[in-house]
Design goal:
The chain is of the alpha/beta class. The protein has twelve helices and 15 strands.
Length: about 325
């Protein structure tokens, strides 16, 4: 025996009673009968039925489409429309409210039964999907790494909580903005801003790297020092690249008031800012300056490979190997 309850909204009393008997015979319980949209909303709020069968043409100021929009949006209860009218204009108005079914009068009990079962199954699937999305969003927001995803056009689709804190852009404000608008870096030596060149990741499927010891420049002009960070292509079930995910690892200390790096500081420790070049105001790439160790040359090789400057990348990997012959990553890069 089904435990699902259904609200019947029908202004023809005889038709409503016929539907009521049919639903009882099918094993459903009746949450109530309503002849007007206003009564339907009141009963739906009080009884919280599992589904509403809604006639489109009703007595009163509101019709069934308006009532459906109210019930579905505020109570998240699925609605199946009943109507004797099948004109395109009415159908399009009803479609905007995202109904779970649409039955044209007169209808058979088999049509009624099948439509209700499909609607309830669809609602159950939607609930599972929403629960899955809730857990996914909650998990993403607990991660300390900043995660930004972009679509194939390079526009931002998702920022988790950490990425919002790093960039100063909320999910709502950052949605469909270009990646360059949301994500800006500062080179620690030259103090020049640069942007991550996402196009090769999306077009070629290359894994891109963002250099450690760079800064994220937030919307509010605050700075945050980052560790090595990466960009990966996102693929659909067919293996086609549909976008990319940028994962940003930050240092433990925020450098909101960090002083600029001066020339005298450069000799204290090598800064590995080589993986992603920065752009000056004219948009031309500048070569970073400063001593490279084996890791620095390896990072440099990754970046040059990212730009498809293969001979320069090979030279960088060879420099890294010359400094440390056990640098297996550089051997792998050279082989690539």
């Amino acid at each position: 025996m089904s435990t699902f309850s259904i609200l019947i909204v029908e202004d023809d009393f005889i038709v409503a009673k016929v539907i009521e008997k049919s639903l009882i015979d099918l094993g459903y319980t009746i949450a109530g009968l309503a002849a007007t949209a206003e009564d339907a909303i009141v009963i739906a709020r009080r009884e919280r039925p599992d589904l509403v069968l809604m006639d489109i043409r009703l007595q009163g100021k509101m019709d069934g489409i308006e009532a459906s929009e109210n019930i579905h949006s505020t109570l998240d209860i699925p609605v199946v429309f009943l109507t004797a009218f099948s004109d395109q204009k009415t159908f399009e108005r009803a479609l905007v409210t995202a109904p779970y079914g649409y039955i044209i009068k007169p209808f058979s009990i088999n049509t009624l039964s099948t439509t209700i079962r499909v609607a309830l199954n669809k609602k159950n699937a939607d609930n599972r999907m929403h629960e899955h999305q809730f857990w996914l969003d909650s998990t993403m927001d607990t991660l300390p790494e900043g995660i930004i995803t972009v679509n194939a056009a390079g526009n931002v689709i998702l920022l988790n909580k950490a990425a919002s804190m790093m960039t100063g852009w909320t999910q709502q404000n950052g949605y469909e903005q270009t990646l360059d608008t949301v994500l800006t870096f500062i080179d620690p030596i030259t103090e020049h801003p640069f942007h991550f060149f996402i196009s090769p990741v999306i077009r070629e499927g290359i894994i891109g790297t963002i250099p450690a010891d760079s800064f994220i420049l937030s919307k509010d002009k605050n700075r945050l020092l980052i560790e090595d960070s990466f960009a990966y292509p996102i693929r659909n079930k067919s293996g086609e690249i549909t976008g990319a995910a940028i994962i940003i690892y930050t240092k433990a200390v925020s450098l909101t008031t960090q002083r600029p790096v001066h020339q005298s500081d450069r000799s204290r420790a090598p800064v590995h800012e080589i993986s992603i070049a920065f752009e000056n105001q004219q948009g031309s790439m500048q070569e970073p300056k400063g001593p490279y160790d084996a890791v620095g040359w390896y990072d440099r090789g990754n970046y040059l490979l990212f730009l498809r400057r293969y001979q320069d990348a090979l030279n960088a990997y060879e420099n890294a190997i010359a400094m440390n012959s056990l640098n297996h990553q550089s051997w792998f890069g050279k082989g690539t």
